[in-house]
Design a protein that fits this description.
- With 186 residues, the chain is of the alpha+beta class.
- It has 2 helices and 7 strands; from the N terminus they run H-E-E-E-E-H-E-E-E.
- Strands 1, 2, 3, 4, 5, 6 and 7 form a 7-stranded antiparallel β-sheet that branches.
- The longest helix has 32 residues, at 30-61.
- The protein is elongated, with a radius of gyration of 31 Å.
Length: 186
């Protein structure tokens, strides 16, 4: 089945003089031109504001991560749980907590966050070195069952000395540390 087609008209080129017998198209009036310009200006201004707002909040939220906590977004987090790659095609549950050391031994550290959350972490003597009860720390740990094993401990709220467990990549398997993060030597 075929559909009827409209009668063929000669092709018109944009801006060409109309064919004989056709009336010229009326131009836009000055009022329509002003309205169109105003609409375009509003669209451009709104788009610029949206880009600015998105880039401002993204910069605040991504300036630092666990171990280099500061600013808004995750920098204001007291404690949380997340899943990351284990580097071998699997996944591992991580815990991050910022709080005061309430108990400390050569094998465990208990931290209490400002909101009252408290957790005990298994640590190595290397991670415990230089820490004291009352210090503010940020702990990143791997959770397996009910055991949380610290992979890094950062001394101080603003990202002081970072201590990492043996065999752990920088950041405890969290990815690339921030460029301004302190490094461990020795």
């Amino acid at each position: 089945m075929t559909t009827p087609q409209a009668p063929s008209t000669p092709d018109q080129t944009w801006g060409a003089t109309p064919a004989p017998g056709q009336a010229p198209r009326p131009a836009w009036s000055p009022g329509k031109k002003i309205v169109a310009g105003a609409v375009a200006a509003v669209i451009v201004a709104g788009g610029g504001a949206a880009v600015w707002a998105a880039s401002s909040s993204a910069a605040t939220d991504t300036q630092a991560g666990p171990g280099g906590m500061r600013g808004g977004g995750l920098g204001a987090a007291l404690h949380g749980e997340y899943v990351s790659s284990d580097g071998n095609g699997g996944y591992v549950t991580k815990i991050m907590q910022t709080g005061e050391v309430t108990e400390l031994s050569a094998t465990s550290l208990t931290a209490k966050s400002a909101d009252g959350f408290s957790k005990t972490y298994t640590i190595t003597s290397e991670l415990a070195t230089g820490l004291a009860t009352g210090d503010t720390v940020t702990v990143v740990a791997t959770e397996s069952g009910t055991t949380a094993t610290a992979t890094s401990v950062t001394d101080g709220e603003s990202g002081g000395q970072v201590r990492q467990g043996q065999g752990q990549p920088p950041g405890g398997g969290q990815g690339t540390p921030p460029s301004d993060a302190p490094t461990q030597t020795g």
